[in-house]
Design goal:
CATH topology of the largest domain: Rossmann fold
Number of helices: 12
Largest sheet: 7 strands, mixed
CATH superfamily of the largest domain: Vaccinia Virus protein VP39
CATH architecture of the largest domain: 3-Layer(aba) Sandwich
Strand content: 15-25%
Distance between the termini: 78 Å
Structural class: alpha/beta
Order of helices and strands: HHHHHHEEHEHEHEHEHEHEE
């Protein structure tokens, strides 16, 4: 039996149980297998795949049917304007997190500002900022060594020399590394899911590391640490931006307030759900 692009694309209906964008996903799988873009697929629907290409496609297709995230199967995920290498040691970059990048870029920071991204994972936030602000000096930290290796791989792949990646459990190692560290902006997309949240047994998160997702009974453990530590590492009028859950806005704003932040504001994502909270450490007059 011959397998053409057209008849393999028809198998998208089988993916509808695990994907809301089955037609797109099967195009991406096919493009990956035959190393052609999606436009080429539509131009040559009668192209016949070789036996080894069909075997490879079926292997990837079966992995997706089992629920494995497409990003892990393809080994990459687009975020902001870059296409990142990803693996199972880190969280998959998500479109909602682009809001944090957008807000960071909108702040009135100097060209030579110093930034740190806590829990960088793939490096998505730090590298997106570095690509837009080449004069910013950006540190990126993680407490998972495999994540640091992946972030460094992505940094090298994009050729972004204004990013320094190193180990730290939130800001703990920053103090030991340089007691005079002072940042104009601290950003983080930390774990913020409650440990008993039923969504942890659904969808892509089943394949992602729990350390990048879960933060205690109420999901706020990591956010508490970051918000508490941040003032010791911010310059006067420095900013803190954190991503959090859709139902955590009130709690996060209260933590900002108790820690002395001003101009506190929670920003909604494209689904009109609370997603990122910002606060400024106003310098005394």
């Amino acid at each position: 039996m011959s397998f053409t692009i057209a008849n393999l694309l028809r198998r998208s209906s089988d993916l509808e149980l695990v994907s809301e964008s089955a037609a797109l996903e099967i195009e991406l799988l096919l493009s990956h297998v035959i190393k052609k873009d999606r436009i080429w697929l539509k131009t040559w629907p009668d192209f016949q795949l070789k036996d080894e290409q069909v075997l490879f496609f079926n292997q990837l297709f079966d992995r997706r049917l089992q629920g494995e995230p497409l990003a892990f199967i393809l080994g990459s995920k687009g975020f902001w304007t870059l296409d990142y290498a990803v693996n199972s040691h880190t969280l998959i970059p998500r479109p909602e997190t682009e809001l944090l990048v957008e807000i960071a870029l909108s702040l009135e920071l100097n060209d030579n500002s110093k930034i740190i991204d806590l829990g960088t994972g793939t490096g998505a936030i730090a590298l997106a900022l570095a690509s837009e602000r080449p004069n910013w000096q950006i540190d990126a930290t993680d407490a998972v060594h495999q994540a640091l290796e992946l972030a460094e791989f992505n940094r090298n792949m994009f050729g972004l020399t204004n990013v320094n990646i190193f180990y730290s459990d939130w800001l703990d190692s920053v103090s030991r590394r340089d007691s005079a560290s002072s940042y104009d902006l601290i950003v983080s997309n930390p774990p913020y899911i409650e440990q008993n949240d039923p969504h942890l047994q659904q969808g892509d998160v089943r394949f992602e590391p729990s350390s990048a997702l879960v933060a205690g009974l109420d999901g706020l453990d990591a956010l508490r640490i970051i918000i508490e530590q941040a003032p010791m590492h911010l310059s006067p009028n420095g900013w803190l931006l954190v991503e959090h859950g859709y139902d955590q806005g009130n709690s996060v704003r209260r933590l900002f307030d108790l820690t002395g932040f001003k101009q506190i504001k929670t920003h909604a994502d494209l689904n009109l759900q609370d997603r990122v909270t910002a606060g400024c450490l106003i310098a005394p007059p």
